[in-house]
Amino acid sequence: MYTARCTNTRREQQKPVQETLIPQSIDVSQRARKRIAWRLLPFLFTLYMIAFLDRMNVSAAALQMPGDLGFNDKVVGLGAGMFFIGYLVLEIPGGLIAELWSARRWIARIMISWGIITALMAFIHNAREFYVVRFLVGAAEAGFFPAVIVYVSHWFRYRDRSKAIAVFYAANPLSYVVGSPIAGVLLGLTWLGLRGWRWLFILEGIPAVVFGVITIFYLTDWPRTAKWLKDDERDWIHAELEKEKEAKRKARSFTIWQAFSQRDVILLTLCYFGATTGGYGISFWLPTILKRLSGQSDLYVSLFAALPYLVGFVVQQLNGWHSDRVGERRWHAAVPIFLCGVMMLLAVIFGSQLWVAVALFTLVGACYYAFHPCFWAVPTAFLGESAAAASIGLINSVGNLGGFFGPMIMGYLVSRTHNFRAGLLFLVGNLCLSGLLMIAVGAGRKAKQEAVEAAAI
Questions:
Q1: I need a labelling partner for 273 at 20 to 30 A (CA). Which of 99, 145, 237, 423 fits?
Q2: Has residue 7 been placed in a domain?
Q3: How many distinct structural domains can be found in the chain?
């Protein structure tokens, strides 16, 4: 009887402790996730917006530059694509450097160098200089995207990663929304004997240098060294991420070369190649398409061209949020990119009127940007550390060659046919194929992935 009474007493003493442990744990996780998100994501968003302004300002400059320098559509398309040849050079090493050395320092180096070279675009005078400088801008920016994806995996759990990437990736469509009107204004300027397109490159190169310097002091490489986190928050996120790593090791530990030969890594690379071929092909040529269709001023054309990216931002966030909520990635990526191809096909068939074309290209943008956050959550779901970093670099570098082939082939076909129909149909095929490849990703790996995710919970 005494024993029973003692046992009951111990249970009563333990009960309040057990009841308070769970709320305390939840409180720590909520505080840590919120503090990390507010500290890192707005800054990473800003960096990526600057990156895309500098990457794609050539599409706005193409409204004036060809006339000033005597470039035809083929030269403009090839020059725009040269960025991605340079981009291929350091992409895989960039991801590894971010994982093994310092993502913060590597991102800072990239931004400072690409900002300086972007400004040099203002001083080109012939096609050869155009090709060389665009190549150097790509080489300077190479490694930025995989470094940021690796950096996100150092701070956010798998179950939070799609939302985090969606916030960061929002800079992609919003850079067009913000950049298009700015570009339209700058194109109307003539200062110190320089035309607007030259000032566009100069003024959009400066922020990259400034924020590159800020990055060194603002970002923190790892949670364990983050003084801006409280001790319990720092311990909680460190433990969560270590638990995920251990779960991946138990399921399967890949070397870098083993990861490169994995079926899903190959499929993801081909899928991304098709998506970027279609996406960059249309994003580069859209202002020119709308200009020739409408005959409006550069400013009005820039505003029309911003609509697909504004809607793309909204749909992107919703799709990333829903993907995290239901814990599904493949279909959340495959369906939007396939529909992107379908919407572009409809634009080819019915887009002879300006407002119909704007509406359909807006849907193209919505579907294209919905694809990315869910797509980039996939590699870190089954690969860890160096294997994930190198694979992200491989997928992004080879995939982004589509940014070379899309604008270049589009320019070639426009020069040959004197209209955009054949080029757009080429982009349609790439986008639809990308959707089919994405459906094939993860086939046969679902049970293994569920085991990894269950072990990480």
A1: 99
A2: no
A3: 1
